Known about the structure:
globular, Butyryl-Coa Dehydrogenase, subunit A, domain 1, 48% helix, binds flavin-adenine dinucleotide, 3 domains, 415 residues, Butyryl-CoA Dehydrogenase, subunit A, domain 2, Butyryl-CoA Dehydrogenase, subunit A, domain 3, alpha/beta, seven-stranded mixed β-sheet, single chain
Amino acid sequence: xxxxxxxxNPERLTAQQRELIDIAATLGRExxxxxxAQIDRDAVFPFDNYADMRAAGLLKICVPVAHGGLGADFxxxxxxxxxxxxxxxxxxxxxxxxxxxxxWAGFIxxxxxxxxxxxxxxxxxxxxxxxxxxxxxxxxAQPFSEGGSAAAGKAPFGTLAKKVDGGYIVTGRKxxxxxxxxADYYGALCTLDKPGATMRDSMYLAVPADAPGxxxxxxxxxxxxxxTVSRTLDFKxxxxxxxxxxMPEGLYFQAAQRFPHMFATLSPTYMGLAQAxxxxxxxxxxGEVPGTPPVKRRMYPTKQIAVADMRIKLEQTRxxxxxxxxxxxxxxxxxxxxxxxxxxxxxxxxxxxLARLAIxxxxxxxxxxxxxxxxxxxxxxxxxxxxxxxAELCQDRLGRECLYEPGERDEEIVA
Length: 415
Ligand SMILES: Cc1cc2nc3c(=O)[nH]c(=O)nc-3n(C[C@H](O)[C@H](O)[C@H](O)COP(=O)(O)OP(=O)(O)OC[C@H]3O[C@@H](n4cnc5c(N)ncnc54)[C@H](O)[C@@H]3O)c2cc1C
């Protein structure tokens, strides 16, 4: 059976997009999918998949060409990420954390305002980080969440970076730190420790995993996305040099305001899972799932209607996904932001709905632990939980922006 292309019509893609998606598809089919069950069962990090991605150049996908990377743009990255998510959700989600670190320091920083001195200093420092990725295959994680309102973008980060001679002393705790114990550097968001610090004083620092004062704690036995190994990270008086800055002081705040599509980099994984739920259903109804008897179920009209409904929802999801991919730019207008919330919400929620429909359509034997569908179902449930744009927070933002012009307030009602 011809498999749907993750990015729709491949003829509409650039040569680089086609080539990188093909690499991801081959790795995914031949390596990641066969390993996914064990990674999920044991809740262990997919080290072998990372070795394959490193060899294929995928760790440097968004490192600028001038720094030895592949120089992929936002649209190219999300399409490749979705293809990886089609085969292993945990690999795609953790790879997202790594690639985002190179995007923030790379093309996002290029699009932002800096003084000439800041830009020159950023150029010098990011060369150090990019070299680690390109030449040494190092992996960066992205631990932002703290359990309070900071990761939702509503309060300053509680992790503090105190300026000292030659660097910073970092102290704080990050929860749900994917790649804990696997990354070489933790790209942590902190607040510059100074009186009256606000969200504008956010710092983005790469903390070496082996720095004195870094520790990992807590069990990891979740419902889904088990291979992300997202345990708790503690930083206790960790010294990092000035070169640890992934962005100049204060720049992360500007980036978060002006490039909101970055927060939707979590949805490509779920686009891939939506596709995986559909792929499984077609193969199952055709009696072609490896390890199951060759029983066909496709001749029942109810199955045909159910799979048609799934394909309709999948194509709706893909259309929104591609719209997001192509809309990403610095300073999107208000309407584009609203489309972005709606698209991100829909991709994450539809992925789980498609997995639900897949189980209902295929039937009882399809959800046995020996088959991938129940894992896809569990993994797909995790998308709507990711801050800062959980499903609820997308609705919060969208509902408000649909009804209020910027700066508009309701008159106070006096009882
Ligand atoms: C598999 C997995 C991997 C993850 N990996 C990472 C990672 O690598 N890095 C990282 O930084 N985080 C990561 N996270 C964490 C994730 O982004 C969230 O921070 C975490 O799931 C939040 O936990 P919570 O729902 O208990 O949060 P809570 O803060 O308790 O929020 C609960 C819900 O309340 C709502 N809410 C929260 N704050 C507000 C507010 N201020 N206003 C209105 N509503 C609000 C949100 O809808 C949220 O879903 C990961 C999570 C999962 C599940």
